[in-house]
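Appendix B, example 12.
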Amino acid sequence: MTAADGLCAVVLAAGAGTRLRPLTLLRPKALCPVGNVPLLDRALDRVAALGLAGPGTVAVNASHLADQVVAHVGDRVHLSVEPDGPLGTAGGVGRLRDWIDGRPALVANADAYLAGGSLQALLAGWDGRTVRLLGVPAAPGQVGIFSGFAFAGFSLVPWRRVRRLPDEPGELVRAVWRPAEAAGALEVVPFDGHFRDTGTAAGYLAANLHAAAAAGGRGGNLIAAGAVVAGRCVSSVVGCGAVVRGRLTRSVVWPGCTVRRDEHLTDSIRAGPAVPPS
């Protein structure tokens, strides 16, 4: 299957990101930068590589700090705002049922960090009837496993399952994936690149450090244009407009933030001069 076969994409960006607080008190999780690129833009680039772009074929939902998401995407996509709080992965897709309108949906979690690899295998040979999940080999004892694989952020959902989803809070794992698995109608397609769940601070930091290493910059760093780095950085990511006068080791500095001369950040995330209390 290809985009020409009527596929649409739904990028889920509405979650409150409670596990990633206090970062998500400043920005919605989908707009937190990894390797100086907002996670949402990474997801949109992935679906664009499949030929899916524009408000006719790509939708993004928003709820937590929705105004930031709305301003960020503009008219690039179809927007679905959930004003009364996030509806979850199933409810978010269900709310878009009229827009999806008979098409199968490629559903993407905006907080999934993927590097390298391709999503083409997820579509190859798909008949539009089964549910497909992108997966990576599960770690020992990991929960939420499908045939030995952990979910890697992207799934294909046939229209006949989309149309049953109500516009109310719910999760795809319970509403679609597990029922399809029980019916023998779920396939897991291995991802041939690097995947990281960025939903926790540890996962978010690890994704940034991977992006820095992949960039191959001096000292293993990824320094945005417009950043001022007068201190010493090792294996770190520094955003546009940031000023680093101290030292960084395996750390992330968001755009516009400052690291003072007397500071040495290790395995840290500098997201702002002051973070609102949780």
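The helical segments are 39-48, 66-73, 88-95, 97-100, 120-123, 159-162, 172-182, 201-215. DSSP finds eight helices and 22 strands in the chain.
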